[in-house]
TrEMBL record:
Belongs to the 'GDSL' lipolytic enzyme family. This is SGNH hydrolase-type esterase domain-containing protein. GO terms for biological process: lipid catabolic process. One of its GO terms (molecular function) is hydrolase activity. It comes from the Eukaryota. The keyword Lipid metabolism applies. Residues 12-197 form the SGNH hydrolase-type esterase domain. It comes from Crotalaria pallida (Smooth rattlebox). Pfam families: Lipase_GDSL_2.
Amino acid sequence: MMVGPVRPQFVLFGSSIVQYSFYDHGWAAVLSHLYARKADIVLRGYSGWNSRRAVQVLDKIFPKNATEQPSLVIVYFGGNDAVRPHPSGFGQHVPLQEYIENMRKIAIHLKSLSKKTRIIFLSAPPVNEAQILGNSVLLGKPLRTNESCRIYSEACLELCREMDIKAIDFWSAIQKRDDWRDVCLLDGIHLSAEGSKIVVKEILKVLKEAEWEPSLYYKSMPVEFEEDSPYDPLGPDGNATKNISRLPFPESGVQWD
């Protein structure tokens, strides 16, 4: 049983970039802050997953007979698919053509959920090969390379153009900062707070520019229980109350758009 009133649901679906997105001022945490009293940010992140695993459980995560379907689904798979293949066939690697077809299957399924469900795909982000720790070498070669991420990123973007799906060039967006290797990634793979800021700004740009009805841009959406109340905080003169339902919490100078 869910709590009410029912709000639009924004579902974040992907691998560890999604699962960890509430950590350390992550991009899901920022979206939850910006969309407070407007939409519920629902996390469906699965660390280590690739697109092959995602396709296997689409019906469980996004059942077509659900009472309420999401208003927005943001999808990220690609970085794990792009790792170097192991001769055994085990592991995260998914060949490029299969990755493309898996992402196509995800898009088709999400589009079938409802007429109101909107979709944004995030392409594979860059990696800082020098920073990656742990199991980073396979058969004497790097397990993850920035070049492989670029190839999978471009394939995702091309599919989105073909299917008329909103997409964010994650690989390029992060690398627009000259110092991205030092400040945008925690471990060479996962996003720091600075990296998450970039993702949020890219998402908000898409939502602001999209000609979707109703708009899913946070400044355009209604606020839950926005009406004036005699129980609102008193104003300075003590003779009237002040409605703070849209008052932003201090952002430390961050301009999201």
